[in-house]
Design brief:
This protein is of the alpha/beta class and 341 residues long. It has 6 helices and 17 strands.
Length: 341
């Protein structure tokens, strides 16, 4: 398969630059994966598509305010550092701009010296490993000095940083938000529970792959970056019971999907576990864990368009995206949602 087969035309004005005032008032396209039929709803209508006994799986990762702006200690050159993942102790894998200025031993200073970073490893494609030094608690220093690492297609400043977190975000460690979850409010989650739907939380820390376009021409040649995931015993038991009762597992977002499918692919059952996954889901993949998916509208030629095409069929997805463009849906992180049923 060629990457070009997952392309579509998107007018730039449809890329949502800011979140809606109310999370659950975004639009919801409902796509039947068997027939390709489409319904146009609002996100809060998701309630009518969920049934008692179903399990909704949410990714409770929390985004680090991981983008830091500092300067080289010696030359005062301006440097942007994006924390990607903690490798050990106070050492982090980071994406750096401009990377050519950062050699092994280079020190970058943030917030007038409140935080310092020394480069200890030079990788490819702008990757550097830094060891950080600071007083106090690292996450608190980061809260003070860092900003939310919004995707490159968002050019507006985010007024309220909490709008790039889900209302249930808990486990700190992501370089980007699991954006399908941004549509939920605490009130809507309560209504869903009151209907008898189970809510389960798993964790996948969204990493570097989110920021990287597919750079090969053939889908099968693409390599995904690894991301850390974990599932508790309680959630594993709940998901096993859901399947046993013939009820549906409804995944919220591609990150939850990749976690659930990784676990089922590795163990052929749900179980308490944690580890790193680089699973790449594209057409031809047979789903082992999920039945339905709540997701946003994704970038042309991205691995995420490939994932939803694996679930609903490439023709159904590309047609749905064409309809979304015609109906002026809002796209990407702060955009509208799709429910693939």
């Amino acid at each position: 398969m060629t990457v070009e087969e997952f392309n579509y035309d998107l007018p730039e004005e449809l890329i949502a630059q800011t979140p809606l005032e109310k999370r659950d008032e975004s639009r919801l396209m409902v796509l039947d994966k068997k027939t390709g039929e489409i319904e146009h709803k609002h996100f809060k209508d998701i309630l009518s598509y969920l049934e008692s006994g179903d399990t909704l799986v949410l990714n409770d990762t929390k985004v680090l305010p991981a983008r830091l702006y500092g300067e080289k200690e010696d030359t005062k050159a301006l440097i942007e550092v994006l924390l990607l993942k903690n490798t050990e102790g106070d050492t982090w894998e980071c994406l750096v701009k401009p990377a050519r200025r950062i050699k092994e031993g280079t020190v970058v200073v943030f917030g007038n010296g409140k935080l310092k970073a020394k480069c200890v490893f030079v990788g490819e494609e702008g990757i550097r490993h830094f060891t950080f030094s600071y007083q106090g608690i690292f996450l608190e220093v980061l809260e003070e000095l860092g900003t939310m690492p919004l995707p490159p297609y968002i050019h507006e400043q985010l007024e309220d940083q909490s709008r790039y977190q889900t209302v249930y975000a808990k486990e700190v460690g992501s370089a980007a938000a699991p954006t399908a979850g941004l549509h939920f409010t605490k009130e809507l989650l309560k209504e869903i529970e009151d209907k008898g739907v189970n809510i389960a939380y798993i964790t996948l820390h969204v990493g570097l792959g989110t920021f990287r376009p597919v750079s090969v021409d053939t889908v099968e040649e693409h390599t995904m970056h690894s991301e850390y995931y974990q599932m508790t015993k309680e959630v594993a038991e709940l998901l096993t019971e859901t399947k046993k009762q013939g009820k549906r597992i409804i995944s919220v977002g591609t990150t939850s999907t990749r976690t659930l499918e990784t676990i089922m692919s590795l163990y052929h059952e749900f179980r308490e576990c944690h580890g790193w996954t680089n699973i790449f889901i594209y057409p031809g993949y047979e789903f082992k864990a999920i039945d339905c998916l709540i997701t946003n509208f994704h970038l042309p030629k991205s691995t995420l368009v490939m994932l939803v095409s694996a679930l609903a069929g490439r023709e159904h997805i590309l047609h749905a995206y064409q309809v979304a463009v015609e109906e002026k849906y809002r796209f990407f992180s702060f955009g509208d949602a799709m429910f693939i049923k």
